[in-house]
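[job 4471] stage=fold_predict status=RUNNING
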Amino acid sequence: MKHRFFSALLSGLLAFFLFQNSLHAQTSPQTSSAPAAPKTVEEISVLINQYCSACHKVPPPNVLPKDSWPRVIKLMAELSQTRFGHEFISAEHVRDITALYYGSSSKTLPVLPYIEDPGKSLKFAASTVKEKSSLPLILDINAVDLGRGKGTEFLVCDGERKQVLLLSHTREGWQETPLADIDIPIRTQVIDYDGDGLLDIVVADLGIYPLTNDLKGKVLLLRQQASGEFIKETLITGLGRTTDIQVLDLDQDGDLDMAVAVFGGGAGEIFWLENLGKDQHRKHQLLQLSGALNISAGDLNGDGKVDLVSLVAQEHEMIVSFINQGKGVFKTEVLAQAPHPMFGSTAMALVDLDGDKDLDIVFTNGDAFDTQEDPKPYHGVQWLENLGKLKFNYHNIGRFYGAASVAVGDLDRDGDLDLVVGSWVNYWDDPKRRSLIWYENNGKQIFTPRPIANQPAGIVTLALEDVTGDGRLDIIAGSFRMDLFTKQLFKEQEVKDQSTKKPNKDAAAEQKANDPDSSPKHRILLLENRSLRQPPTH
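[job 4471] inference complete, writing structure tokens
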């Protein structure tokens, strides 16, 4: 942050200080103390590096529009005070830093172009799966085979109903069967946990939505019975907001261990539990910070041992790996880190994208529900090419507002891997903005964006599976309307505040009845692949 700020700084500083001084004159009593002397850009840049680098990379001014910076910097100062237990950034320095960011940023951010239909793209036929909802909160859809002779079914984590559901496609249509009541189920894994020959379901329970340090997260087991029923048991409790689990043999001793990602609130962690037998476990800490979105397993370095990888959000915005050294020892390696803390990481997948027999990493960024909720032009999809020896090369795939989920498969049956990406932050009032797109791979990992749908809004989970049995991959998409969810939380608080002044037990019901957002919306959608392209001949 040096001389590149000067061009916009002169007029920006003047405008901001005039506004600040006007506001100060109206709200503050007159004092005899003289105002602090103005600082140079170089002096303020030193302050920015001093304060920001204590927690994260220094954000450039162009990641937010001008009018957002005063509020965001004030919020950062308040958060730092909470974290350190005392005033970390003085009011004078907050003023100076705000002035520099305000003066150095643009009034608006660049606008991404529309993703248009070229006319030769794949065609998809959309249909609603089961009931709609006024507030869809589908957190995860997992294509599974539960070993009951029914082929592929889908485990659905429904945050609105607070249930794990089993979605089955039969000749009579879709069937949706509740398996267990769970506060906020967010991830499932199918595995024979107890070695009885029946496949069980391990579930990560977020526990609570708000970013707090309340220990509401859990790991649960749905133990399958011979009758086909599932009995719910608690495996771990008292965790922070838990986002993912992996049950597998991590120390090569022949039994099942467990890796857990805890996003947390102010604090989070990634750890693994060593299976000691007789339902006893020993905890091993891998990373102690907030923001872990997942924990994925795969052999990154080709040594035959299973490594772990996590996409970490919050101020860290990085991909971190835990390389298995054998005998339960893991070495932490940061594989990549975003250029700034507003990046908004959302999802990742381990997959051999380029067909060279090693695991690459595809990841998305599209979260804007922390400091400034507008879609960002730097949202999108990218991948890390595995070069061997834990070296990775970054490749941009494309920019896409609110990219929140990614699924990988050969959609057009041309022998390479394409991508399907969903959005959960977008300009939903613009019919040309897409909630779901796919990136066509030309075989050399050059990707072209193609539109699929502009509804439902807020697609945060995807599964690719040949549902119709015609040899083509179809898409099962789940909607999580974070935009409506945050509105509801504010409205509920307003109703609560009003009820303390004038009791009205029907206020919430009346508000919902008059709310246009309460109309039924898609929660789960099938997009049937109607491609006419023939499979490749060999």
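[job 4471] summary: Residues 125 and 488 are 31 Å apart (CA to CA).
[job 4471] exit 0
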